[in-house]
Here is the input.
Amino acid sequence: MATDLISESGGKSDFWQGVRLSMPVVVASAPFAVLFGALAVDNGFSVLEAFLMSALVYGGASQMVGIQLFGQHVAPWLVVLSIFAVNFRHVLYSAGIGRRIAHWPVISQALGYFILTDPQFAVAEARAQSGQTVGFAWYLGLGLPVYLFWIVESALGALFGKLIPDTHALGIDFLLPIYFLGLVMGFRKRPLWLPVVVASACASIVAYKTVGSPWHVSIGAIAGVLLAVILPPRHSGVEAKR
Amino acid sequence: MSTTFWIIIAGAIATYLTRIGGHLVISRFDHIHPRVEAGLNAVPAAVLTTLVAPELLNAGPAEWAALVVTAVVSLRGGLMAMFLAGAVVLILARQFVG
Here is the structure.
């Protein structure tokens, strides 16, 4: 407990320790921030709107989905619903990290949840599991650089995006499917991954052909989730954890 | 205020609800039903798949090559490596097959 007190009072060094851990995330997310800014302008956003979306939503994949559907002139409430659907995974992060940061003041917790991204959750959860306290200063050191670079690079991408002459030759229009495929592949170690992907792919293609965009997103996603719910728990790998 | 502005505000609120909601709701239960947990586990792969699959219908040789390379690289590399590999293949292939 004495070490806890020291680390809590030594907030400054904790902060910089977090900043050090944030650097790989800053580097890895930079191209996507620039890409988002460029695509946002390409899909009809202004530079300020691209900056605002990065500053307020702060969720890469959901921002990409949002601007793509916006560019297809989908109804606004469906754009918002899609952002919600893509970000829904944060519910699990939120439930997991809650017990690690319950000792913070409420305002600090509220801010902590705002910057709860995939890497933020992964690194904080790893620290907690190694037996160390997840302090506010450390958590902020980890998250703040990623946030600041994200919004500045989004604005730069939006400014730069206007200067790209031939988006087809540069493949800008097809970079998102590649990026999303990369994210899908990133989850491949999860139980039921292949059946869920196959079910969602088939359902979304059929829905795309029949009902049309953007309903193929919701219909395809529901098909995959339902399959995971319906299959016996011994296949989904959640029973062993109980 | 423009429609875009309101989409951003509503999207931000919806996103914040997902980030704080799990703590507010799920932490009140002692344990989650295994089937619900299995469903929640499937959410990211299910949603993201629907953003790729329909693109296959309109994809030409360049796009197919890029997706295949992305998938193969993903077996070894990280997100950045597979994204860059896919993007490079796409740009190169489009120089030849348009």
Remarks:
- Chain A has two domains: 2-186, 189-242.
